[in-house]
Write the structure tokens for this entry.
Amino acid sequence: MYLILALLAIAMAAGWIAQLIVGRSHGRTDWTEALVAGFVGSFVGGLLASLIAGDGLDFRPSGLIGSILGAVIVTAVWGLVRGRRAA
């Protein structure tokens, strides 16, 4: 139970940080997008960073950094796709 809550909190934090880094024009946080970007970014970026660093699948700082970088990429791509749809 606590593991699931911790994963939700980490994913949401990674997505929120990604939105701060990418920058949003409206200045508000989209928590749904933060959660999705955090999960996808954590899976892709966190897994890759952990494996590259040789940490395996343990909970390490390299995985957290990879999660944030992955969430930044997902948020940026999401913004580009959303921008194309609006045009």
In short: The chain is about 80% helix and 0% strand. Helices lie at 2-22, 31-53, 61-86. Residues 59 and 87 are 41 Å apart (CA to CA).
